[in-house]
Input
Amino acid sequence: MFDQILQFLLTGITVGSTYALVGLGFAIIYNASDVVNFSQGEFVMIGGMSAVALSAGDTGLPLWAAAIGAVLITMLVGMALQRFAIAPARGASVVTTIIITIGASIFLRGVALLVWGKDLFALPHFSGEEPIQIGNATILPQSLWVMGGAAALVMGAQYFFNHTTLGKAILACSCNKTAAHLVGINVGIMLLVAYGMSAALGAMAGILVAPITFSSYDTGVMLGLKGFSAAILGGMGNPMGAVAGGLLLGLIESLSAGLISSGYKDAIGFIILLLVLFFRPSGLFGKASVDRV
Amino acid sequence: MALLDVKDLTISFGGVTAIADLHFEVPESQVYAVIGPNGAGKTTLFNMLSGIYKPNEGSIRFQGKEIVGRRPHQVAKMGVSRTFQNLQMFFNMSVLDNVKVGCHLRTHSHLWSAALRLPNILKEERQSQAWAREALIFCGLEAYIDQPADALPYGVLKRVEIARALAAQPKLLLMDEPAAGLNDTETVEMRELIRRISKTGISVLLVEHNMGLVMQVSDRILVIDYGSRLAEGLPEEIQNNPKVIEAYLGGEVQYAV
Amino acid sequence: MKRLSGFYLLAIAVAALPFIFPDNYFVTVVGVSAGLHAILAVSLNLLMGYAGQISLGHAAFFGMGAYTSAILTTRYGWNPWPTILVGAAFTGVVAYLVARPILKLKGHYLAMATLGLGIIVHIVIVQMGWLTGGPDGLGSIPSLSIFGWEVDSDERWYIVIGTLLMLVVWLALNIIDSRSGRALRGLHGSEVAAEMMGIDTAATKTGVFVLAALIASVAGSIFAHQQAFVSPDSFSFFFSIELVTMVVLGGMASTYGAVLGAIILTFLPELLVVFEDYEVMIFGGILMGMMIFLPQGLFIGLQELLRKLTRPKKTPATPVAEKKESSHGAA
Ligand SMILES: Nc1ncnc2c1ncn2[C@@H]1O[C@H](COP(=O)(O)OP(=O)(O)OP(=O)(O)O)[C@@H](O)[C@H]1O
Ligand SMILES: [Mg+2]
Output
């Protein structure tokens, strides 16, 4: 029993790490521009798919180069999204921007469908497929890559937002656009950076998990949903909350799949999310908002 | 018995005590002003009086009935209405519809009968239309009746808010800085409007920074500073109260009449 | 009379179409599904456009109605009519139970919660195979019969659904222009002000949520009988998003806008089929483009265009109020 639970925990943390990265991407864009970007999951898909495409075949790039290329491509997509879809709609209502990002995600999926078709692709494992024994549980080396990669990225983001001028500037944009402008922050560029970063995080998540979960043109949908759930669970606008939310969601899903029913694992995840919201309407680590009148 | 009887009222947010142990009584059919420097807790007081905030301690009795513990719509039903320091217009509606919402408590149809447009709805619509017009005309807004709310200047909106509150036929009207942001002519009009409202028998609780206006319309004045009661009395008493003068002059130059 | 002039125009258009284009696939087949979508969009618009409460899970209520009818008629041999009522009652009770806690949430949290609700219902439908047929769905659902008049052809379904649509539009128009409708719009405009005018905002939100769910449930039952087959795919979260898109695309807080959005979003994929592989991409692109350039929605966009064309330039309006609280939109 204990071994089994250990196994579920390991799986949960692996899956949760991906959710955490996608959730972090949500939080970054939300922080910088108050937009919930429903095409966040598409970044993951594009990252994974382009890495596969770049490394495929005899003439393909080595894995590391393909990964870098894929991240760059995805960043470009993210910045283009900001520049050509979000920026022109400045001042639109929340729902309108939500629909724009949904439109963008359908568009990106459509492009992926054109380029790659409906097939499933996988990236080779980074360092072999020999499972590693931990107690009586096993873990794929790739899962360690996912966990380690996610941890490094999260710490990097944490450092970026708390200790670098650029990071702080991005947060300032969301707090007060005019003030940010006055102190000489170029809000437009900050937003581009935020979308680029968020896309890069998504892409890296996509590349890290591509060897385990395969990717296809529509893998982004579910991941996007999970990332949004993670960000909400942690409290919208709190990047580390989103990370915690992602890990928690991964663990809940893996434990309920193992112990209760795999068919209902997503439902259980959402039920717990709803229950959390009923008792904490601003998520686990979000600040309660009071309407001041 | 006083119309409004506030006792031992206290509320704090985190560490900040916004209102501390405040007590006062508002007599029937008067204009009663609450003044104090910025951040003194006047709006917070209004929010408690209208059920938006729940005080940590104390009681608020309106016509002998407790307000604390009721939700705003229940307080409204008791006969309290209000306007807001930051406009709370329904910008998605016309001026007339805004004020018709004020008639909510005087009408009674339900979603289901409205959906089928049963005959009583027509009568009710005509009735609220008439009431809303009446309130708008009372506030001098007949020119704006059919305009969408989001196309109107600030000064007009302030009066639409008052018309909306009046359409509810309250016994007590809470006005949070009705003259803020108004120019001199508009301020004079506002003064007259407050007087007219008071003449109809509605009691007015007024928060206002324009001391000239306060002194001209108020029957009694309560001064609060840092959430505590500093002084209370007739306008002349307040004007000559050394503590009040110090609170204002020591702080900001708001005593410009 | 003036209040309902748009309604009469719409009714005439709905009635005339089959005569103008007899035996046309786009009228009787796509038209029927556009009609159902329009019913759903109008109901969702009451909740979202007017009351300002976003819901990304409306398909769940549509599905609950559809499956109640499908299960009761195929597994238990019920007559279709009572199943519509039972479906509505069941859906209404579920909606009522979840409404209070869910509608306490605001903005993105509300979006998430309703999204979650929709996904949970979808998963339950997929998983409860013994009752719902699981992913394969349920077939052989009987058609409706109205006093012996069998609704068994596309044309007849067009009549039934066209009539139902007009009924729902009429109900929605009535509500909007009433005490309850103003309460809805008021709580959208400013929740505190609405409360202060004596509106029990929590109860009002619950009321409109349940009403929207009831309409969706009835539409679901009709859908099941019309298609004679239901499967979970029709009630996934994609469909919920599609419904939201219809409302926003047509123009929030406009009943006719919702109808327009539903029609466009139903026909668009049919028309884009010719682009084959490019279909998904073009669809996404059009969606984005329309929302970027007409954020108020098509209905208002078109109205404004008409006004500009028909009227000479007016002098600029009175200065706009300095503050418009961010109460528009769903946040
Ligand atoms: N919801 C809240 N959360 C935290 N602090 C609050 C809240 N509402 C009011 N306060 C605090 O209570 C104090 C009193 O504020 P209030 O708005 O009542 O002042 P006021 O007298 O109306 O000032 P003004 O004349 O500027 O309108 C302030 O320090 C304010 O920051
Ligand atoms: Mg104030």
Observations:
- The beta strands of chain A are 132-134, 137-139.
- The radius of gyration of chain A is 19 Å.
- Residues A 290, 292; B 13, 16, 18, 36, 38-44, 85 surround adenosine-5'-triphosphate (ligand 1) (CB under 6 Å).
